[in-house]
Structure formats: C-alpha cells, structure tokens
Amino acid sequence: RKEVEQDPGPFNVPEGATVAFNCTYSNSASQSFFWYRQDCRKEPKLLMSVYSSGNEDGRFTAQLNRASQYISLLIRDSKLSDSATYLCVGYGGSQGNLIFGKGTKLSVKP
Amino acid sequence: DAGVTQSPTHLIKTRGQQVTLRCSPKSGHDTVSWYQQALGQGPQFIFQYYEEEERQRGNFPDRFSGHQFPNYSSELNVNALLLGDSALYLCASSLRGWDRRFQPQHFGDGTRLSIL
Fold first, then answer.
1. Cβ of B42 and A45 within 8 Å?
2. Is B85 in a helix, a strand, or coil?
3. What does the alpha-carbon distance between residue B72 and residue A41 come to, in Å, rounded to a whole number?
4. From CA A47, how far away is CA B75, in angstroms rounded?
5. Mean per-residue pLDDT over chain B, rounded
6. Contact (CB<8Å) A98/B33
7. What is d(CA B89, CA B45) in angstroms, rounded to the nearest whole number?
8. Chain A interface, mutation test: which of B105, B112, B114, most A Cβ atoms within 10 Å?
9. Residues A59-85: pLDDT tens digits?
10. Which terminus of chain B, N or C, has less C-beta within 10 A?
11. Could you give the CA distance from residue B94 to residue B13 in angstroms, rounded to a whole number?
12. What is the DSSP secondary structure assignment for residue A26, as one 8-state letter?
C-alpha cells in the first residue's frame, strides 16, 4: 500500500458547488497531516494543517479519521480560483519527512 | 519578507552532465528540504539540511548530494544526469524549533530541469 493515496481526478464542478476529496494513508505516514494546493507549474502552497478534531478555515474544512486512516478536504461554494491540484500530505516515513500524495485535480467551471 | 527563492528557474542539460541548483530559505528559517516532482506526481523527498549537515535522506542515489552554508542557503548537486532526472526540483524551508510533525514548509517556485 502506498503511504499516501489520492484519487487523481479530475473533479469538474460548477461554481458554487461543494466538493470533497479523500485521501488514505498508511501507518508510516501518520504522525500529522496537511493539505497543500498547487497551481499549474507553480510551487505547492500550504492550504491547511489537519488537526485530530477536524478544522475549518472559511470555505475549507479538513477532517481526520484515524480509525479508517483517511483524511478529507471539503470545499464549499467553489470559486473559479479554487481550480488547482490539491496535495494530501502526511508526516512520517523512516526519516520523518513530508510524504505527498500524487494530488487531486479540481476544475471549477462557470 | 523574502520568501524561498530558487535559481535558476529553468535549466537544460544532457545525459552525463552535472548540475547545481540553489535555494535561499525564507527569512528566519534555518532548515532546508529538497524535493523532486516528476510530471503528474507529488513531490518526493530527497534530503533535508540543518546546521550545515544532511539530517535526513529519502530514497535517492548518491548522485544526489547537497550542501548548506552558514547563511542557511543550500545547494543541490546531481551528477551523471539521467533522462529520468528531468523534473521540477523544489526547495522548502522551515524553522527547526517547531515540533517537526506540525511545522509548515514553505516552498520556492522550483527549478525545472530538462535532460536531453
């Protein structure tokens, strides 16, 4: 099993829609979690850290389910500017480093 | 407040050559990590430098080496380039004092390396 796995998408949604991404992780990538956003040919930018109780930042909500070993990101009221690739990231590994999923591509259409 | 800066932006090399990429961390950060991102993939951890020493290393061959300078800037060196080394190379900086599990890493724009 890969350390961090995501559905690559693409997710094509209309403006205003609610969209959710899930990500599964293995024990070796389970110390802490983040969601990063990456625009085409740009660097990854931190979107949210994921706390065990779940956390919300405006239109974005992150949830952690340790029993099932998955993390989710919910985006409400999608904007055109939300179009990007969303990277699920775990901290762990034998070296204690960030472990990235392949990313989920979101495209928000007018 | 200067963010993470990388140079060069783009680079074209041929197989067998050597390359050096450079990174200056975000102001106030002392730890630099390097990642390789192939097309359609997530970034893969190469290594991390702190106090001018390599502290952690991912599954990359010895052809990949690095250095950190007293001003915290860092270099990534790749020898004997292969076609498969074509990728976006990202530098990320962070502050060592944080619990590493929860520290956010700030990325530079990356260097796009193409091997012909």
1. no
2. helix
3. 26
4. 27
5. 93
6. yes
7. 10
8. B105
9. 999 999 988 899 999 999 999 999 999
10. N
11. 30
12. -
Which residue on chain A is closest to B56 by alpha carbon?
A95
What residues in B contact A97, CB-CB < 8 Å? 33, 45, 48, 56, 58
**Pairwise CB contact (< 8 Å): A46 & B104:** yes
Task: Give residues with Cβ within 8 angstroms of A16, minimum separation 6.
Answer: A77, A78
**How far is residue A25's CA from residue A66's CA, in Å, rounded to a whole number?**
9
> If you ran DSSP here, which 8-state letter would residue A9 be given?
-
Tell me if B42 and A87 make a contact (CB, 8 A cut-off): yes
For chain A, the residues whose C-beta falls within 8 A of a C-beta of chain B are: 4, 8, 31-32, 34, 41-46, 49, 87, 91, 93, 95-103
- Amino acid identity of residue A107, one-letter, is S
Q: How many CA atoms lie within 13 A of A34 on its CB side?
A: 21
